[in-house]
Amino acid sequence: MALVLGIVPARGGSKGVPGKNLRPLAGHSLVDYTARAARGSGVIDRLILSTDSKEIAEAGRRAGIEVPFLRPAILAADDSPMLPVVQHALDALAACGWVADIVVLLQPTSPLRQPGHVRDAVAMLRETEADSVVTVVEVPRHLSPDYVMRIDQGRLAPFLPEGARVTRRQDVRPAYAREGTVYACWSRTIERFGNIYGEDCRPLLIDPRESLSIDSPEDWDTAERRLAEQGSLGAS
């Protein structure tokens, strides 16, 4: 059976919402929500926290997440891409003799994540043998590329040429956006393609009501409200 590694990336610096990884959200930290979803999924063999912060590391341990290393500062800057963070975690574990077959990236900024999201993503990856699986939501129809406009020399024009032929809402083609709740891929995908998507990336469509990425104070307020409606950590 393929070994599944869950990686929770949580650096200390945050400008959009300062201290968000430790700040209580409806009574619990973002790390707590992530740990709950990962454990509840029943498909994660090893769950680790990648952080540069000793305070976040301690919060991770309290939440039941393993912290086998502290992330180098060079991988924790505002503009640090995620791929080297994942590669660093894989290399650190491999150096200790533990090699993951499947990588599940669980960013703590998605506190509405449910255990089923993680479970379904890993199941889809195994069943399809695709390079990766990512969660997506359908874009509201009025924001579909068929409806989106551009300004050309002061005049509105369809962003896509074929958009000029779309006159009824019923004719708008559905569009989807990656929304960050779960990214799952084979470790071989990273090795072969140098990214977490590969060439065959499958979508896991989730309910927009369970989709939220916290990047601003407004997002935080929305998360507080939705979690209160769901019963915080009591959601299934």
Give an overview in words.
With 236 residues, this protein is α/β, with parallel strands linked by helices. It folds into two domains: 4-137 and 177-230, Spore Coat Polysaccharide Biosynthesis Protein SpsA, Chain A, CATH 3.90.550; 140-174, no CATH class. The chain is 30% helix and 19% strand. It is built from six helices and eight strands. It has helices at residues 30-41, 54-62, 82-95, 115-128, 187-193, 217-230; strands spanning 4-9, 46-50, 102-105, 132-138, 149-152, 155-158, 176-186, 201-205. The chain has a six-stranded mixed sheet, sandwiched between helices. Helix 1 (30-41) links the parallel strand 1 and strand 2. The longest helix has 14 residues, at 82-95. The protein is globular, with a radius of gyration of 19 Å. 34% of the residues are buried. The mean pLDDT is 93.
